[in-house]
Every structure is written in structure tokens, then in C-alpha cells.
Amino acid sequence: MSLTNRNYFEFFSLPKSFQVDADTLEREYKKLQTEYHPDKFADASDSERVQVLQHASLINDAYDTVKSPLKRAAYLLRLENIDPEEHNQSHLQEAFLLKQIELREDLEMLTAKKDLDGLEKMKGSVTSDRNTMLQNFEVCYLASELIEAKSLYNSLQFLFKLVDEIEAAEEKLLDY
Amino acid sequence: MALLSISEPGESKPTVHAIRKRAVGIDLGTTNSLVATADAGKVQTLCDHKGHCLVPSVVHYSNDGTVMVGDKAVEKGSSDSRNSISSVKRLMGRGFNDVDYDLAYEITENADGGMPIIETSAGSKNPVEVSAEILKVLANRGEEELGGELDGAVITVPAYFDESQRQATKDAARLAGIKVLRLLSEPTAAAVAYGLDRKQEETVIIYDLGGGTFDVSLMRLEQGIFRVLATGGDTALGGDDFDRAIINWIISESGLDEKLSYDRRNAITAVARDAKHALSLDEKTEVSFENWSATLTRDTFNNLIDQLVESTIKACRRVMRDARMDISAITDVVMVGGSTRMPRVRERVAEFFQAEVHTEIDPDQVVAVGAALQADVLAGNKYGDEVLLLDVIPLSLGIETMGGLIEKIIPRNTTIPVSRAQQFTTYKDGQTVMSLHVLQGERELISDCRSLAKFELKGIPPMVAGAAIIEVTFQVDADGLMEVQARELSTGVASSVVIKPSYGLEDKDIEKMITDSFTSAAADKDARALQENRVEAERIIEALENALVEDGNELLDDNEIELLNEGITKLREMITKQDADAIRTGAEALNKASLVFAGRRMDSQIKSALKGHTIEEYD
Ligand SMILES: Nc1ncnc2c1ncn2[C@@H]1O[C@H](COP(=O)(O)OP(=O)(O)O)[C@@H](O)[C@H]1O
Ligand SMILES: [Mg+2]
């Protein structure tokens, strides 16, 4: 089987969509890994090994992409010939950007106060905003409102990063 | 295939007589190393003739160039610690400046790069060479056991090893002439040893506290696939630090001067280690050093080491967090490494994970056992269901950007193999060269991350600034080793990548070391031949001279004697020279020249024998 001319969803026998059946993804990923892992080719020729290495890398990248909602969103846009990173944040609504600045200030303040509960609460609310936005992305994507979908993707980038930062701040406070 | 396996009841199944591949698993440890081999799931650890299986990872270099490894090197080291290299694994792939702890031997900084060089009285040695000596001994054991040259080996590395450390390990294997089937992470090997692949679904913690490294890994085992979900630990934390805690205790209790000579430090370390081992069994132990002695109780010891144990727990917490997993999800905890024999360690680990900890398999051997099982499979000796081991990259891989910041390209805990492409552009008109600095680590600032290598991309087609787009692909293979490729996108021109590892050896260095070892092996062979030929020539001369004294005047004329004497003088001269071949030819010539003489002597001896016979008979 050649992997090179397929989209990442096809690797895992999944339809090209924002909804992903996690069980199918896991099952098919394991199947592919079993087939293409370099360990299965420990005795093969060098050129074969190079090819297998590329295949296995591609499979891992496909899995990461399909599994992560953010990467999946970007990938779907790319498949529609939209560059998700183009002029990325400049076109976002001012209200959204102001809100982001505000949230970041909150994060700094909670960190300075070593307020773990506050951080946990903040994480809850940002995560829920993020989930709503993911649903909105799917709606736009299905309706082929790709410009709006792209704008949602760029907003989502902010929210995913913010959640990471909140977690990093929590980790620091807990002294992991 | 299916037809082949149909068999009548009572009939044995047809067997395929494939040639068995000779494969071993090697646990190349900081303190101890071990080699094992597996056949159809049965593992044997290989021991020396005294029954010692663990090979202390110590290499001793003598003035005359003799290299000793293992127990013998440890023995030598007690009186000559400067030439006894221990814990060399801690230096693998590291820089001179990383060594911020005491060593019993002297290291200097390599002139062109930060690599630490060990100064022995047999000359300068780099860590890769020293490791290769250990590997050679282990491989030899395997060859003796399996009866021939090895087809390959699985060598284990701590999961936490970064790229340079893995590369250094692989280089050492190459230098030792070993084909590496896979660099396997130690926790994965431990999980394989426990046969956890037989289970359906498990979430396992592998807690490995050895002599110089601590590793904790969270693994998910599902239907024959082992997947490392997250790893953490510390490459500079292990039993040595627990020894040091006792050494410091001795120093402060006894009022010794902290500045100890190499040999006294070695002696005090041995005392500390014995005490530590004793406390794994007993509640207290007597500690004496020189003419001081005192009792160390387990409670006191536990206090001394609490900080160290706690820092391992912290790493466990971090791993759980990285995997976004709750402690209650853990089904098994596997203990690996000699230091997990310490009761305090077992207690704290059990307490933290609220799970029973597995210690059934000897924690010293468990890694080699798993490596052997995997080596058997990878070499192609298939037996039933194979397990697939998916590993992750332990530390994020990134590149230096403007202002000393690092941009992550492959985040840590990404399943390997993996490849990621990144695009760069030129900033000057006509620019044809570009350099990239690759680092590994989690921090934002490059000064907090480990430098892996500098790459120079050459042969970029000259264009105006910003027009050339260079796509750089970072490929990390299943061993965690990195390769870099670069291509200019608009023209499709591939640029060549020149790698300068930060703390490792360049390819050409290794090639040279391999050739050197071949030439020195060849030189050794020549020296032996020279010696053998000299001995043989001297034997011929001596025999001839004796014969001449005994029978020369009787059996040879003056001319003949003169010729033989000339031959002797000539060969004597050759013996003083270094040409082994000339000596051999000279010796053969003299032998030939004396054939007539030898023949006549034989005749005369037979005659005299007959004479004697006759005399006896008629006496
Ligand atoms: N009974 C014991 N109690 C405490 N520590 C022990 C015991 N046996 C071995 N060790 C320690 O285990 C360490 C070596 O463990 P090992 O797993 O062989 O190390 P490595 O994997 O680093 O080579 C040494 O520091 C040694 O002192
Ligand atoms: Mg070990």
C-alpha cells in the first residue's frame, strides 16, 4: 500500500471530517504501526529501511494530526486549500483579542498570588470556551464557511496555548 | 503456509530449519553491565567462568597498554583509581562542563569541542572508546556462548537519554564491532522481561533507580503493543548519590578533611556502599573508615536520603501529569535497578502509587532479560506473537531562533520514528550557506537546553534575500537518533548538511578510531609474528650449532662447515632486525642448507645404533 497519495484520514479508514471515531483511529493506527514499524525490518536492506522509516514517521504524524483537535482543524483547512497560518491573528475581532489580553493578565496575577484554586477555575472556564469554539468550528466547516472556520481556528490557537500556560503555571506552583 | 501446518494427529508439525541468528541483549549500565541471550522465550544471562554475571562497568588502562574490564579492573582500581574508569556512561554524549561532580580519575576538555577526555597513563581516552571496551567483553561472552560472530545486539539506554547520549552509545557499539538491532529504552526492556505483553490492557510505571541514572516511565500495554506514554527522570541521579550521602555523613561525623586523595576517596566510597547495601537488609550497620568508626541506623540513613528519594517521586508526579493521567489508573509498578533494593525507596514508591511494586525478577538483570527477548525477535528468530515496542522522544527537539530562544520542532513524548519539516529563508542577497543550531530540552532559553549539533546547509542557490525557501526535515528514527535533510523549495536543490555534534564524535573520528584499532590489531599481529619467527630462527641456529660441535668435523669438510657458519651469522643479523618475513626466509634457507648435514647425521646415528644393538646383543 502506498501511503503517500492519501490524506491522513484515509490512513485510518476514516471519513474526512472533524468528527473522529476514536476507537477506529486507535485500531487502525495500531494496525499500520504493526505493519510499518522499523523493527519489523531490522534485517532489510538499507534502502528498504529508509523507506520504512519514512512510512512509520508519516503514520505517526498522521495519527498526531487526526487525534489532536487543533491539528485536525488546521489539516482540514489545508485540504480545502486554505493556509491556516496566513495573516494568522491580525484579522481577529478586537473584542476577542482584548479578552485574551485580559485573560493573560488574570493568569499572571493568579500565578503571582500562588492561587491554585483560581488557576483551576480559570482552566475550567477556558476549556469550556474552547470546547464551544471547537463545536462552532465544526458547524462552519460542515457549512463550508471556510473563512469563518479559519478565523475560529486562529482563535482556538490562542485558547489551546492559554490552557497549556495555565497548566504550566500550576505545575510550577506544585513544584513538579 | 496454512497447508504446511496441517498435520495428522500424533504427527509432529513440520519444522522449518532456519539458521538460528546469534543475537544478544546488552544492558550497558552505569555501574554494572550484563549480557543475555534468548531462545524461543527462554532467557539465559551469560556469566564468566566464576559464575559472575554482572560486569562492573569499569575499565582499567595499564601503562603497557593492557586493558582490563569488569571485576579485574575494579581490583586494579583499588590501588590505581586514576587509571580505572568507572561510571563512564555519565560522560557519554555530555560536555566537559556538565561534569560538576567528583570523579576518581582526571578529565580534560577536548580541544575542538566540549567533550570530556579521560587522561590515563596509557594516553587520552574518550568516553565512547571506554564504553566500547565494555561492549567488546560482553559481545565476546555472547560469541562464546552462541558459538560464532554475533548477528546483532539490542543495547539498552535510559529512556531519558538525549540524542547525543544515544548517538554516543551507538558509536561505542560501532567501535566494538557490534551491529545494533535497536537501542531500546531500559524501562521498555523491563516491561518486556515481565512479559506484560501477555496481558490485555495494563498501565504500568517502570521505576528504575540504578547506579547513576533514574528513569521513570509510564507505559501503556494493549494487545501486544507497548507504548511509552511519558518518561521522566534524571540522568544524574542514582546509587552513587546515595553513596555520597553516606560519605558526607562519614566526613561530618568523623571530622575528616573533605579534600581526600583519589585513592582514599575510592576507599571511603567502598565503605559507604557496603553500609548502604547492609542497610537494605539490616536495621543498622557498623561503619569504619581508617581508624574511625560509628553505627549507622536505617532511620538515620533514611533521613540522609529523603531528599533524593523525594526528587524521584517528584519526577513520577511529573510523568503522571505529562500523560494527563491519574495515579489510580496505574495497574503495575515494576522496580528496576540495584538501588530499588533500598527499603525506603520501595516504601515511598508503593505509598505514592498506592500499588504493589513488582520485584520478582532480579532488579539487576531485568533489563538485560528484556533486551535479550527483543534481540531474539529483531534478529529474525520468530517464535509466536511478537510485541511491538513504540517509543517516544524523551525531550523536545528544537532550533535556535533570534535572541537566544528555542523553537520546538518535535515536542517531547512524541512517538518515534517521527519527522517534521520546518521552513527557513535567507536574509541576505546571494546567501548560499545557512547554519542551524539544534537543541534538546524543555526550557525557553537556549542556555537552559542541551546543544546537540550545529548544522551547516551549503549549496543554497543564490537568490535575493527571502526568496530562497529552505525546507529542513528533522528525522528521528526508532532509536531516537536524528538526521537532518535540507532542500530549497523553489528550485528543488538539495543542500548538503554538515553536522558538527556538540559533545560527540564526528563520523570521521569514529572511522579513524576503527581504522586505528584495525591497524593496531594488525600491528599486534605483526609483532607476534616477529616474535614467533625469531624464536624459531634461534631454535634452528642452536640445533645446528650443537650438531656442528658434535659431528661437524666428522661428517663435513671445511668448506661445508664454513658455508653453514656463514648462514648462521647471516640469520643472527636478521634476528636483530624487525622484518618478520626476512627472518622466516633466512631460517628456511639455513634449514635447507643444513639438510645434507642432517641426512648424514641420521645415517651415522642409525649406524651407531645398529652398532650398539649388535654390541648389546653379543655382550
Ligand atoms: N542491596 C542493595 N541495596 C542498596 N543499593 C544497592 C544494592 N545492591 C545494589 N545496589 C546499588 O545499585 C546500584 C547499581 O545498580 P544497577 O542497576 O546495577 O546500576 P546501573 O543500571 O546504573 O548500572 C549501585 O549504586 C549499587 O550500590
Ligand atoms: Mg540499569
3D structure, described in words:
The complex is a heterodimer of chains A (176) and B (619). Chain A has 2 domains: 60 residues, DnaJ domain (Helix Hairpins), CATH 1.10.287.110; 86 residues, HscB, C-terminal domain (Monooxygenase). Helix content of chain A is 72%, strand content 0%. Chain A has 7 helices and no strands. In chain A, helix 2 packs antiparallel against helix 3 and helix 3 crosses helix 4. Chain A starts with 7 loop residues before the first helix and ends with a helix. Chain B folds into 3 domains: 304 residues, 2-Layer Sandwich (Nucleotidyltransferase, domain 5); 127 residues, Sandwich (Substrate Binding Domain Of DNAk, Chain A, domain 1), CATH 2.60.34.10; 78 residues, Substrate Binding Domain Of Dnak, Chain:A, Domain 2 (Up-down Bundle). Chain B has 13 helices and 29 strands. An 8-stranded antiparallel β-sheet of chain B has the order 22-21-25-26-29-28-27-24, with no helix packed on it. A 7-stranded mixed β-sheet of chain B has the order 19-18-13-14-15-20-23. In chain B, helix 4 packs across helix 9. Chain B is globular and about 100 Å long. The N and C termini of chain B lie far apart (87 Å). Classes of the chains: A mainly alpha (176), B alpha+beta (619). The complex binds adenosine-5'-diphosphate and magnesium ion. The site of magnesium ion has 6 residues of chain B, from loops.
In short, what is this structure?
The complex is a heterodimer of chains A (176) and B (619). By secondary structure, chain A is an all-alpha fold. Chain A has helices at residues 8-11, 22-36, 46-67, 69-79, 94-112, 116-142, 146-174.
Based on CA atoms alone, the radius of gyration of chain A comes out at: 20 Å
Associated small molecules: adenosine-5'-diphosphate, magnesium ion
Strand content of chain A: under 5%
CATH class of the largest domain in chain B: Alpha Beta
Helix content of chain B: 25-40%
Low-confidence stretches of chain A: none
The overall pLDDT average of chain B reads 85
User: Which architecture name of the largest domain in chain A does CATH use?
Assistant: Up-down Bundle
Number of strands of chain A: 0
Q: Structural class of chain B, please?
A: alpha+beta
Largest interface, with counts of residues having CB < 8 Å to the other chain, equals:
A-B, 21 and 28 residues
Q: How is the largest sheet of chain B built, in terms of strand order?
A: 22-21-25-26-29-28-27-24
Largest sheet of chain A: none
User: End-to-end distance of chain B, in Å?
Assistant: 87 Å
Give the number of DSSP strands of chain B: 29
